[in-house]
Amino acid sequence: MTEKAKVFTVGLRATKPQDSQVAKIEKLARAIGIDKFAWDKKLVAVKTHFGERGNAAFPRPVLIRPVVDLIKNGGGKPFLAETTTLYTGSRSNAVEHTETAIRHGFGIEVTGAPIFMCDGLTGRDGHMVKIDGTHYQEVSVASGIQEADALVVVSHFKGHELTSFGGAIKNLGMGCCSRSAKLAMHTTIRPTVLASKCVKCGICFDWCSAGAISQPKPDGPVVINPNLCRGCGECLISCRNSAIRINWSDDAQGVTERMVEHAYGVAKTKPGSAFYISFLMNIVPLCDCVNFSGAPVVPDIGFAASTDPVALDACCLDMVNQQIGLVGSALKEAHEPGKSKFCDLHPDLKTELQLEYAEKIGLGTRKYERINLEQ
Fold first, then answer.
1. Could you count the other beta carbons within 10 Å of the beta carbon of residue 96?
2. Tens digit of each residue's pLDDT (9 = 90 or more) over 264-280
3. Handedness of CA 191, 193, 199, 201 (dihedral sign)
4. Has domain 5-187+248-372 been given CATH number 2.40.30?
5. Where are the domains of the chain?
6. Which of left, alpha, beta for 204 (phi over 0: left; psi -120 to 50: alpha)?
7. Are 28 and 305 in contact (CB under 8 A)?
8. Is residue 150 a contact partner of residue 273, using CB atoms and an 8 Å limit?
9. pTM of the full predicted structure?
10. Are 309 and 301 in contact (CB under 8 A)?
11. Which 3 state secondary structure label does DSSP give 147?
Protein backbone atom coordinates (compact mmCIF):
# COMPACT_ATOMS: atom_id res chain seq x y z
CA MET A 1 0.00 0.00 0.00
CA THR A 2 1.35 3.42 -0.99
CA GLU A 3 2.19 5.61 1.99
CA LYS A 4 0.30 8.88 2.16
CA ALA A 5 2.30 12.02 1.49
CA LYS A 6 2.04 14.83 4.01
CA VAL A 7 0.51 18.10 2.85
CA PHE A 8 0.61 21.01 5.30
CA THR A 9 -1.95 23.81 5.06
CA VAL A 10 -2.70 27.18 6.66
CA GLY A 11 -5.69 29.47 6.24
CA LEU A 12 -5.80 33.24 5.97
CA ARG A 13 -7.53 34.22 9.19
CA ALA A 14 -5.34 36.47 11.36
CA THR A 15 -5.92 37.92 14.82
CA LYS A 16 -2.35 38.91 15.76
CA PRO A 17 0.92 39.84 14.03
CA GLN A 18 2.14 36.24 14.29
CA ASP A 19 -0.72 35.29 11.94
CA SER A 20 0.51 37.42 9.03
CA GLN A 21 0.68 35.78 5.64
CA VAL A 22 4.46 36.11 5.67
CA ALA A 23 4.58 34.27 9.00
CA LYS A 24 2.21 31.58 7.73
CA ILE A 25 4.38 30.88 4.68
CA GLU A 26 7.46 30.66 6.88
CA LYS A 27 5.60 28.18 9.11
CA LEU A 28 4.73 26.06 6.06
CA ALA A 29 8.29 26.21 4.77
CA ARG A 30 9.59 24.98 8.12
CA ALA A 31 7.00 22.19 8.18
CA ILE A 32 8.36 20.70 4.94
CA GLY A 33 11.95 21.00 6.13
CA ILE A 34 13.24 24.05 4.30
CA ASP A 35 14.80 25.39 7.51
CA LYS A 36 16.63 22.10 8.18
CA PHE A 37 18.00 21.43 4.68
CA ALA A 38 21.77 21.72 4.18
CA TRP A 39 21.70 24.90 2.08
CA ASP A 40 25.30 25.99 2.70
CA LYS A 41 26.75 27.44 -0.53
CA LYS A 42 24.09 25.69 -2.64
CA LEU A 43 22.60 27.50 -5.66
CA VAL A 44 18.86 27.32 -5.16
CA ALA A 45 16.27 27.87 -7.90
CA VAL A 46 13.11 29.39 -6.42
CA LYS A 47 10.68 28.79 -9.28
CA THR A 48 7.66 31.05 -9.33
CA HIS A 49 5.58 32.81 -12.00
CA PHE A 50 5.96 36.52 -12.73
CA GLY A 51 2.68 36.79 -14.66
CA GLU A 52 2.09 38.03 -18.18
CA ARG A 53 1.93 41.81 -18.46
CA GLY A 54 -1.67 42.85 -17.78
CA ASN A 55 -2.25 39.91 -15.42
CA ALA A 56 -2.59 40.57 -11.68
CA ALA A 57 -3.38 37.12 -10.24
CA PHE A 58 0.22 35.88 -9.91
CA PRO A 59 1.79 35.27 -6.45
CA ARG A 60 2.59 38.43 -4.51
CA PRO A 61 6.34 39.09 -4.56
CA VAL A 62 6.47 40.01 -0.86
CA LEU A 63 5.26 36.50 -0.03
CA ILE A 64 8.27 34.96 -1.80
CA ARG A 65 10.58 36.73 0.66
CA PRO A 66 10.14 34.41 3.70
CA VAL A 67 11.19 31.41 1.59
CA VAL A 68 14.21 33.27 0.24
CA ASP A 69 15.21 34.42 3.74
CA LEU A 70 15.09 30.88 5.17
CA ILE A 71 17.39 29.66 2.40
CA LYS A 72 19.80 32.57 2.88
CA ASN A 73 19.81 32.09 6.64
CA GLY A 74 20.98 28.53 6.00
CA GLY A 75 23.85 29.73 3.84
CA GLY A 76 22.18 29.07 0.49
CA LYS A 77 22.27 31.28 -2.59
CA PRO A 78 18.67 31.56 -3.89
CA PHE A 79 17.63 33.08 -7.19
CA LEU A 80 14.18 33.60 -8.73
CA ALA A 81 14.02 31.11 -11.58
CA GLU A 82 11.91 31.43 -14.71
CA THR A 83 11.98 30.47 -18.38
CA THR A 84 10.87 32.14 -21.60
CA THR A 85 7.49 31.45 -23.16
CA LEU A 86 6.65 29.71 -26.40
CA TYR A 87 4.11 32.34 -27.43
CA THR A 88 4.56 36.00 -28.25
CA GLY A 89 3.98 38.24 -25.25
CA SER A 90 5.91 40.16 -22.60
CA ARG A 91 7.93 37.08 -21.53
CA SER A 92 9.12 35.51 -24.81
CA ASN A 93 12.79 36.41 -24.23
CA ALA A 94 14.95 36.99 -21.16
CA VAL A 95 15.10 40.76 -21.54
CA GLU A 96 11.36 41.39 -21.74
CA HIS A 97 10.60 38.69 -19.19
CA THR A 98 12.95 40.33 -16.67
CA GLU A 99 11.41 43.73 -17.36
CA THR A 100 7.94 42.25 -16.76
CA ALA A 101 9.10 40.63 -13.52
CA ILE A 102 10.43 43.95 -12.21
CA ARG A 103 7.29 45.79 -13.32
CA HIS A 104 5.28 43.25 -11.30
CA GLY A 105 7.36 43.80 -8.18
CA PHE A 106 9.80 40.86 -8.24
CA GLY A 107 12.94 42.97 -7.91
CA ILE A 108 15.62 41.92 -5.42
CA GLU A 109 14.71 44.77 -3.08
CA VAL A 110 11.33 43.06 -2.45
CA THR A 111 12.06 39.35 -2.79
CA GLY A 112 15.67 39.32 -1.59
CA ALA A 113 16.83 37.26 -4.58
CA PRO A 114 18.07 38.10 -8.09
CA ILE A 115 16.13 37.10 -11.20
CA PHE A 116 17.63 34.51 -13.52
CA MET A 117 16.17 33.22 -16.79
CA CYS A 118 17.15 29.57 -16.67
CA ASP A 119 16.81 28.75 -20.37
CA GLY A 120 18.97 31.60 -21.65
CA LEU A 121 18.33 34.73 -23.66
CA THR A 122 15.94 33.16 -26.16
CA GLY A 123 14.95 29.92 -24.47
CA ARG A 124 17.46 27.63 -26.14
CA ASP A 125 19.56 26.58 -23.13
CA GLY A 126 18.59 23.12 -21.92
CA HIS A 127 20.03 19.81 -20.73
CA MET A 128 18.58 16.50 -21.88
CA VAL A 129 17.40 14.28 -19.02
CA LYS A 130 16.56 10.62 -19.58
CA ILE A 131 13.12 9.59 -18.31
CA ASP A 132 12.06 6.48 -20.28
CA GLY A 133 8.47 7.72 -20.60
CA THR A 134 5.58 6.81 -22.87
CA HIS A 135 5.92 9.91 -25.05
CA TYR A 136 9.61 10.68 -24.49
CA GLN A 137 12.82 8.89 -23.66
CA GLU A 138 14.41 12.17 -22.65
CA VAL A 139 13.29 15.76 -22.06
CA SER A 140 14.99 19.16 -22.22
CA VAL A 141 15.20 20.76 -18.77
CA ALA A 142 16.22 24.43 -18.59
CA SER A 143 19.95 24.61 -17.89
CA GLY A 144 19.62 26.87 -14.85
CA ILE A 145 17.13 24.49 -13.28
CA GLN A 146 19.14 21.36 -14.03
CA GLU A 147 22.40 22.89 -12.79
CA ALA A 148 20.92 24.30 -9.57
CA ASP A 149 21.68 22.32 -6.43
CA ALA A 150 18.10 22.49 -5.14
CA LEU A 151 14.64 23.62 -6.19
CA VAL A 152 11.79 25.35 -4.38
CA VAL A 153 8.63 25.57 -6.49
CA VAL A 154 6.21 28.35 -5.48
CA SER A 155 3.00 27.96 -7.49
CA HIS A 156 -0.29 29.77 -7.91
CA PHE A 157 -3.14 27.26 -7.98
CA LYS A 158 -5.77 28.25 -10.58
CA GLY A 159 -7.60 27.07 -13.68
CA HIS A 160 -5.87 26.35 -16.98
CA GLU A 161 -7.16 26.39 -20.53
CA LEU A 162 -5.30 23.25 -21.66
CA THR A 163 -4.80 21.15 -18.51
CA SER A 164 -7.95 22.16 -16.54
CA PHE A 165 -5.93 23.45 -13.59
CA GLY A 166 -2.37 24.56 -12.97
CA GLY A 167 -0.36 24.02 -9.81
CA ALA A 168 2.93 22.43 -8.81
CA ILE A 169 2.96 19.86 -11.64
CA LYS A 170 2.41 22.48 -14.32
CA ASN A 171 4.99 24.81 -12.74
CA LEU A 172 7.49 21.94 -12.97
CA GLY A 173 6.56 20.68 -16.42
CA MET A 174 5.93 23.84 -18.41
CA GLY A 175 7.79 26.30 -16.22
CA CYS A 176 11.14 24.56 -15.75
CA CYS A 177 11.90 23.43 -19.30
CA SER A 178 13.43 25.00 -22.39
CA ARG A 179 11.49 26.41 -25.31
CA SER A 180 12.10 23.28 -27.39
CA ALA A 181 10.49 21.26 -24.58
CA LYS A 182 7.46 23.55 -24.54
CA LEU A 183 7.17 23.09 -28.28
CA ALA A 184 7.38 19.32 -27.88
CA MET A 185 4.62 19.36 -25.26
CA HIS A 186 2.24 21.17 -27.58
CA THR A 187 2.83 19.15 -30.74
CA THR A 188 -0.68 17.63 -30.67
CA ILE A 189 -2.47 20.99 -30.72
CA ARG A 190 -4.14 21.67 -34.07
CA PRO A 191 -6.36 24.77 -33.87
CA THR A 192 -8.79 25.76 -36.60
CA VAL A 193 -10.78 28.93 -37.26
CA LEU A 194 -14.58 28.90 -37.32
CA ALA A 195 -15.43 31.27 -40.16
CA SER A 196 -18.95 31.84 -38.80
CA LYS A 197 -17.57 33.40 -35.58
CA CYS A 198 -14.41 35.09 -36.85
CA VAL A 199 -14.73 38.90 -37.11
CA LYS A 200 -11.27 39.24 -38.74
CA CYS A 201 -9.99 41.60 -36.05
CA GLY A 202 -6.41 40.38 -36.48
CA ILE A 203 -5.56 40.11 -32.77
CA CYS A 204 -4.55 36.47 -33.14
CA PHE A 205 -2.01 37.49 -35.82
CA ASP A 206 -0.03 39.42 -33.19
CA TRP A 207 -0.22 36.60 -30.64
CA CYS A 208 1.03 33.89 -33.00
CA SER A 209 4.81 33.63 -32.58
CA ALA A 210 5.06 31.20 -35.52
CA GLY A 211 3.36 33.39 -38.10
CA ALA A 212 0.93 30.54 -38.74
CA ILE A 213 -2.26 32.66 -38.82
CA SER A 214 -3.09 34.72 -41.89
CA GLN A 215 -5.81 36.07 -44.12
CA PRO A 216 -4.61 35.15 -47.64
CA LYS A 217 -7.30 37.22 -49.35
CA PRO A 218 -8.43 40.69 -48.15
CA ASP A 219 -12.07 39.58 -47.92
CA GLY A 220 -11.36 35.90 -47.37
CA PRO A 221 -11.34 33.75 -44.22
CA VAL A 222 -8.63 33.71 -41.57
CA VAL A 223 -6.70 30.43 -41.67
CA ILE A 224 -4.10 28.62 -39.56
CA ASN A 225 -1.30 26.84 -41.39
CA PRO A 226 -0.85 23.48 -39.60
CA ASN A 227 2.68 23.19 -40.99
CA LEU A 228 3.75 26.39 -39.22
CA CYS A 229 1.66 26.07 -36.06
CA ARG A 230 3.73 25.42 -32.91
CA GLY A 231 0.73 24.33 -30.88
CA CYS A 232 1.20 26.85 -28.06
CA GLY A 233 -2.56 27.43 -27.83
CA GLU A 234 -2.30 31.17 -27.22
CA CYS A 235 -4.56 31.96 -30.18
CA LEU A 236 -7.37 30.30 -28.20
CA ILE A 237 -6.97 32.88 -25.46
CA SER A 238 -6.38 35.86 -27.72
CA CYS A 239 -9.64 35.33 -29.63
CA ARG A 240 -12.46 37.23 -27.89
CA ASN A 241 -15.11 35.63 -30.11
CA SER A 242 -14.37 31.93 -29.49
CA ALA A 243 -13.66 31.54 -33.19
CA ILE A 244 -10.59 29.34 -32.70
CA ARG A 245 -11.12 25.76 -31.57
CA ILE A 246 -9.15 22.55 -31.14
CA ASN A 247 -10.11 18.91 -30.72
CA TRP A 248 -9.95 18.87 -26.93
CA SER A 249 -10.59 15.15 -26.52
CA ASP A 250 -7.38 14.22 -28.36
CA ASP A 251 -5.17 17.31 -28.28
CA ALA A 252 -5.49 18.37 -24.63
CA GLN A 253 -4.81 14.87 -23.30
CA GLY A 254 -1.58 14.74 -25.28
CA VAL A 255 -0.44 18.12 -23.95
CA THR A 256 -1.22 17.12 -20.37
CA GLU A 257 0.62 13.80 -20.53
CA ARG A 258 3.63 15.40 -22.20
CA MET A 259 3.69 18.14 -19.58
CA VAL A 260 3.63 15.56 -16.78
CA GLU A 261 6.53 13.65 -18.33
CA HIS A 262 8.55 16.86 -18.45
CA ALA A 263 7.66 17.52 -14.81
CA TYR A 264 8.97 14.05 -14.01
CA GLY A 265 12.21 14.87 -15.82
CA VAL A 266 12.68 18.07 -13.82
CA ALA A 267 11.95 16.36 -10.50
CA LYS A 268 14.39 13.57 -11.41
CA THR A 269 17.24 16.10 -11.36
CA LYS A 270 16.47 17.05 -7.73
CA PRO A 271 16.04 13.85 -5.69
CA GLY A 272 15.59 14.81 -2.05
CA SER A 273 16.22 18.49 -2.78
CA ALA A 274 12.88 19.80 -4.08
CA PHE A 275 10.17 21.56 -2.07
CA TYR A 276 6.72 22.75 -3.14
CA ILE A 277 4.52 25.59 -1.86
CA SER A 278 1.21 26.59 -3.45
CA PHE A 279 -0.85 29.76 -3.07
CA LEU A 280 -4.62 29.26 -3.03
CA MET A 281 -5.49 32.91 -3.59
CA ASN A 282 -6.99 34.65 -6.62
CA ILE A 283 -8.18 31.29 -7.93
CA VAL A 284 -9.09 32.42 -11.43
CA PRO A 285 -10.29 30.41 -14.46
CA LEU A 286 -7.16 30.78 -16.62
CA CYS A 287 -3.39 30.65 -16.30
CA ASP A 288 -1.24 33.62 -15.23
CA CYS A 289 0.19 33.45 -18.76
CA VAL A 290 -2.81 35.33 -20.14
CA ASN A 291 -2.62 39.13 -20.26
CA PHE A 292 -5.68 39.69 -18.06
CA SER A 293 -7.17 38.25 -14.88
CA GLY A 294 -10.71 36.95 -14.56
CA ALA A 295 -12.75 37.11 -11.37
CA PRO A 296 -11.84 34.46 -8.74
CA VAL A 297 -14.25 31.51 -8.78
CA VAL A 298 -14.00 30.69 -5.04
CA PRO A 299 -12.92 32.65 -1.95
CA ASP A 300 -9.24 32.83 -1.07
CA ILE A 301 -8.28 29.72 0.93
CA GLY A 302 -4.68 30.04 2.09
CA PHE A 303 -1.42 28.20 1.44
CA ALA A 304 -0.29 24.58 1.20
CA ALA A 305 3.09 22.86 1.06
CA SER A 306 4.60 19.40 0.56
CA THR A 307 7.64 17.56 -0.74
CA ASP A 308 5.34 15.68 -3.13
CA PRO A 309 3.98 17.78 -6.04
CA VAL A 310 1.22 15.31 -6.92
CA ALA A 311 -0.13 15.09 -3.37
CA LEU A 312 0.04 18.88 -3.12
CA ASP A 313 -1.98 19.41 -6.30
CA ALA A 314 -4.48 16.72 -5.24
CA CYS A 315 -5.00 18.42 -1.88
CA CYS A 316 -5.31 21.88 -3.46
CA LEU A 317 -7.87 20.56 -5.95
CA ASP A 318 -9.94 19.05 -3.13
CA MET A 319 -9.79 22.28 -1.11
CA VAL A 320 -10.99 24.32 -4.08
CA ASN A 321 -13.86 21.93 -4.77
CA GLN A 322 -14.96 22.11 -1.12
CA GLN A 323 -15.56 25.85 -1.43
CA ILE A 324 -18.77 27.69 -2.26
CA GLY A 325 -18.48 29.15 -5.75
CA LEU A 326 -18.55 32.94 -6.02
CA VAL A 327 -21.53 34.65 -7.62
CA GLY A 328 -20.56 36.67 -10.66
CA SER A 329 -17.60 34.44 -11.53
CA ALA A 330 -17.24 32.27 -14.63
CA LEU A 331 -18.79 29.29 -12.83
CA LYS A 332 -22.00 28.13 -14.44
CA GLU A 333 -23.40 25.43 -12.16
CA ALA A 334 -20.77 24.14 -9.71
CA HIS A 335 -21.37 26.65 -6.92
CA GLU A 336 -22.16 24.08 -4.23
CA PRO A 337 -19.38 22.67 -2.01
CA GLY A 338 -18.13 19.36 -3.37
CA LYS A 339 -18.79 20.20 -7.01
CA SER A 340 -15.82 20.21 -9.40
CA LYS A 341 -15.08 23.85 -10.11
CA PHE A 342 -12.60 23.28 -12.94
CA CYS A 343 -14.85 20.72 -14.67
CA ASP A 344 -17.47 23.47 -14.74
CA LEU A 345 -14.99 26.02 -16.10
CA HIS A 346 -13.42 23.68 -18.67
CA PRO A 347 -16.01 20.96 -19.39
CA ASP A 348 -14.11 19.55 -22.36
CA LEU A 349 -11.06 18.75 -20.22
CA LYS A 350 -10.46 15.88 -17.80
CA THR A 351 -9.50 17.55 -14.52
CA GLU A 352 -8.01 14.45 -12.88
CA LEU A 353 -5.84 13.47 -15.87
CA GLN A 354 -2.60 15.13 -14.82
CA LEU A 355 -2.86 13.68 -11.30
CA GLU A 356 -3.63 10.19 -12.58
CA TYR A 357 -0.83 10.23 -15.12
CA ALA A 358 1.67 11.78 -12.70
CA GLU A 359 1.00 9.04 -10.18
CA LYS A 360 1.20 6.38 -12.89
CA ILE A 361 4.70 7.39 -14.01
CA GLY A 362 6.01 7.81 -10.47
CA LEU A 363 6.14 11.59 -10.02
CA GLY A 364 4.28 11.29 -6.72
CA THR A 365 1.12 9.99 -5.09
CA ARG A 366 -2.46 11.25 -5.00
CA LYS A 367 -2.86 9.83 -1.51
CA TYR A 368 -2.20 12.49 1.08
CA GLU A 369 -2.57 13.32 4.75
CA ARG A 370 -3.60 16.92 5.23
CA ILE A 371 -2.09 18.54 8.30
CA ASN A 372 -3.60 21.89 9.27
CA LEU A 373 -0.90 23.83 11.11
CA GLU A 374 -3.47 26.10 12.73
CA GLN A 375 -5.28 23.39 14.70
1. 15
2. 999 999 999 999 999 99
3. positive
4. no
5. 5-187+248-372, 190-245
6. alpha
7. yes
8. yes
9. 0.87
10. no
11. helix
